[in-house]
Write a structure and sequence with these properties.
1 helix; Immunoglobulin-like; six-stranded antiparallel beta sheet; 6 strands; 101 residues; globular; disordered N terminus; mainly beta
């Protein structure tokens, strides 16, 4: 039996490919910032090219296509490696913005 050739993270999950399958999306754009938020704890943001703005209430991240604004309280940056950023704190809202803003 041939092993499935799917990328897994260190926990053995295929998060974005599984989400795409459930939503019947043919391909998730790897050039846009993708994220997962855990209520009251923070979130993980992938495919980040640049940290544009940062404060305890407001963070603006830029990806290859578009930007992502994170608002909340007590926000801080955790681990930042190879395009992945962990944001700690109470995230209240995440919204996409056009790059021209």
């Amino acid at each position: 039996m041939e092993a499935e050739k799917t990328a897994y993270n260190k926990y053995g999950m295929r998060l974005f490919s599984e989400i795409a399958t459930l939503l019947a999306v043919e391909e998730l754009s790897i050039s846009r910032v993708q994220y997962t938020v855990v209520d009251g704890r923070g979130g993980v943001f992938q495919n980040v090219k640049k940290l544009v703005e940062f404060s305890a209430e407001n963070i603006l991240l830029a990806g290859k296509k578009g930007r992502l604004r994170i608002t909340g309280s007590g926000l801080s940056l955790g681990k930042c490696t190879a395009g992945d950023i962990t944001v700690l704190g109470n995230i209240q809202k995440v919204e996409r913005e056009d790059e021209e803003k």
